Amino acid sequence: MALQVKHRPWLASDDLTNTAKSPHSHPMTLTLSPSGQACGATVTGVDLTRPLDPDVIAEIRAAWLEHHVLSFPGQEIGDDDLEALTLAMGGFGDDPFFAPIPGRKHIAAVRRNADETTPIFAENWHADWSFQAHPPAGTCLRAVTIPPHGGDTLFANQHAAWEALPEARKARLADLIAIHSARLPYAPDGSYGVGDQAKGRSMDIRPSEAALATQTHPLAPAHPETGRRGFYSTLGYIIGIEGMADTEALPLLMELQTWQGDERFVYRHRWEPDMLVMWDNRSVLHRAAGGYEGHDRLLHRTTIAAWAG
Asked: What are phi and psi of 187, to 5 degrees?
């Protein structure tokens, strides 16, 4: 049964319906279909090539906050439309270590060529750019070239991962401050550093000494919009725990990474041509899967700026 949802950002629902009327947009009826997995929902009834009424954007945001990952199938959108949605959701975040595609400042290509043999990009769990002082609220990916099989994206619900812990375990972890850095992937000697680029990676990654910087965030903060607590980021971008020796912190982070990516908390997203996916970077981890050897894969990506309140 469809429910009318008006500016109620974390209302649970199986269907979400809104008919928007504006002199600058066409009427749209949004339908929300949850994945039935740990997070994720499909949104239909909206045309992302047209200007979106503010009420529609508000309801998309409500669904995004509740389900953490939204997919929009059947969207024959271009880069202008991708940028317009990103602006409507909060503006552009800063993308370090990626070069933008030609003619754009805020779109990066997540590319893998059919004959490429380098490791799959972003194959480990992470939250985008968690090493920044003000990390992005979310990420958008537009399907450009989708292989006939493989190439799924996995998402792990970090609210669910936190809430499933025993209360005593939560108490021990609640006040920990994590140390984040981009050094492991993006320093010149990192996994996507100079040596990786020499192997012929198709993505235009720009490793830098700037990746050596560090930034702290709570290990399990409250979400800035919903107030719901959950793990934020994981081992990889997290390189230590403030006030804790590495001999203690690293085993703890390894243990937590296994817990955070447990299959109970995971939604596997299968890509289709003409699809856009948008996720809440503050509530899920994500990682890329392979399985499309011999085929090109190309997505265009934007980041949604940190929530300004």
From this structure: -65, 160
What is the band of 6 on the pLDDT scale with cuts at 50, 70, 90? very low
For domain 3-304, say whether CATH 3.30.70.2740 is its number. no
Q: Say which residues have a Cβ less than 8 Å from residue 191's Cβ, sequence separation at least 6.
A: 119, 184, 185
243-283: pLDDT as tens digits:
999 999 999 999 999 999 999 999 999 999 999 999 999 99
**Sequence ranges of the domains in the chain:** 3-304
